[in-house]
Amino acid sequence: MESDNRRNTIFPGSNPFPGSDIFPGSDRLKTLPRTGKQSNSLRDEKRRVRTPLIQLPINPSTSSTALLPVLKGSPWDRYWKAYRLELGGSVVVVCKKPTTEDLFTIRSFSGPDADEKLYMLCLLQHDHLLLSYEIFSFEDTFYIVSECMAISLEDLTIARPNELQLAIIIHQILAGISFLASQGLTHGSITCSNILVSAQGVVKIANPECCRRNAQQSGSVDVVALGCVMKHLMEGPTKAKKSGLQNPSYWSADAIEFYSLTLSASPKQLAQHAFLKISPRKEELV
To answer: pLDDT per residue over 184-233, tens digit each?
Structure first.
């Protein structure tokens, strides 16, 4: 997929995320365990910059895993701003100081639920959830340094995917939803703008910190939303309020049945459907 050249706009200003005094007392937070490995360049950078860590309570069940660092200080002391994009919300694309070829994104949050979001962000690590590398606490605001994805699914509606590409996309989103459901969580904002795609064809759900515990409905709300995303990809933006497809002849019987089941099936049931059996390679999205 080719990125839009209009994105290469230099982002002006020194601080895109002004601080807020709504959420005081962030010093009481501690570092949570996380899974996944950090790159050598990230570890080397941490050795050079002596930024104090905020300590968060360790989860005993995962205390042996690597830590997602929460650092005191401004992220702009360690990252250059390049430009702003809409990738699951407004983010600033950045690179490290000194400049490297690696790009990251920085987004922020604050407010009375900031501690809950931080806790959720540190706990949730999965191949199909947006990966974060480190967090900065500065002026009562948390800044999240994450991997830089290429586009959102909103961009794909311009050029409608074929059925193989559709199956690959839906399969990966469902994997993320299934993981959240297994944890008794609901994302609640599964939309095309919140689903991101990397240059390698990996599909990930953005903003995992927004998940909420909902044991009774975990998965069902997100599965219905998955159906809406699927319809959006199949037919593009439409003002029609009908739940059915307007042009079903373009798609196979398996695709149509899978779409219909998003109104009632569980993530586990959908994962076994024949429609997803044609989606072995994410490279088909590249």
So the answer is: 999 999 999 999 999 999 999 999 999 998 866 667 899 999 999 999 99
Which of 76, 63, 72, 178 shows the shortest CA–CA distance to 129?
178
And the tokens for 29?
């937070």
Closest CA to 69 of 7, 117, 121: 121
Residues in the chain: 286
What is the rounded distance in angstroms from the CA atom of residue 34 to the CA atom of residue 81? 27
Q: pTM here?
A: 0.75
| Apex 120 CA angle, 29 and 189, nearest 5 | 140
d(CA 241, CA 234): 15
Q: In the 8-state DSSP scheme, what is residue 158?
A: S
Give the C-alpha distances (Å, rounded to integers) separating 249 from 106, 157, 167: 42, 18, 17
Report how far residue 83's alpha carbon sits from residue 79's, in angstroms, rounded to the nearest whole number.
12
Rounded to a whole number of angstroms, the distance between the first and last alpha carbons of the chain is 5
**Cα torsion at 11, 13, 15, 19 (round to 10°)?**
-120
| Between 254 and 47, the higher pLDDT residue | 254
Residue 70, classed as helix, strand or coil, is strand
Residue 53 backbone dihedrals phi, psi, to 5 degrees: -90, 140
Q: How far apart are CA 261 and CA 53, in angstroms?
A: 47
* Among 200, 198, 197, 194, CA closest to 226: 194
Strand order in the sheet with 195-197: 151-152, 195-197, 203-205
All residues at 6 or more sequence positions from 29 whose CB lies less than 8 Å from its CB, including other chains:
54, 55, 56, 70, 115, 118, 137
Closest of 216, 212, 258, 213 to residue 234, by C-alpha: 258
Please check whether residue 129 is in contact with residue 205, taking contact to mean a CB–CB distance below 8 angstroms: yes
